[in-house]
């Protein structure tokens, strides 16, 4: 029977530090079977590992990903011993203050035990009243957290039930892979396009290629759009200046009769907006 319970944070997505990929998701742990949990450089997390006993159980948690959360379980199979990566200057976790004679950092060995039926997301964990005191929240920066037996079992029980709809709906939507339709309508259109339609489309493209305009890059398209917008703005400004000049006698007369300058300005702008495009074009 396990004595204590823990949570190991891991990164499932590649992250390169000093030329080394430091990610280690549950796929890798399952493939390897066992792993030494090296590279921990936080004293509280280190102390947690030094307090572990063989047979302790832990939740396996994916962090630094779009939807972080618990994805499986693992077991401590070797108690703490010096982390030799701290002695290696070429290692991303090198610490010059740690030596073989006086090691500062320690690690444990863990073994893959299971995947949860579904990921229990961080959002779901935070929303659960029974988990508010998890060290995952009270000491958020820890990569190795201690759990109570109740917290450990409760998280696993959540994984056996459907995710709340409100939480699921709030997760970031995955992007469609390159080359795949990005919508159901596009997917249906792609599915309906057979070889004959593709050939006909290719023939039409070949027949009109000499007359078609070259496609613009995103940068060129944006530049062209910006230039057009600038021309439009300049034209409107010139038109309004001409309109204001024509209205100047009326404006001066109104001001001379004690009219409020802001009110006169608003009225002038309203008359300008009331003009048709053709009338404005004549003034530009």
Automatic annotation (TrEMBL):
Residue ranges with Low complexity bias: 193-212, 220-231
Primary residence: nucleus
Subcellular localization: Nucleus
One of the record's GO cellular component terms: nucleus
The keyword Nucleus is annotated on this UniProt entry: yes
Occurrences of domain EVE (ranges): 4-157
Annotated InterPro entries: 5hmC_binding, EVE_domain, HMG_box_dom_sf, PUA-like_sf, THYN1-like_EVE
Keywords: Nucleus, Phosphoprotein
Residue span of region Disordered: 193-231
Name of the protein: Thymocyte nuclear protein 1
Source species of the chain: Cafeteria roenbergensis
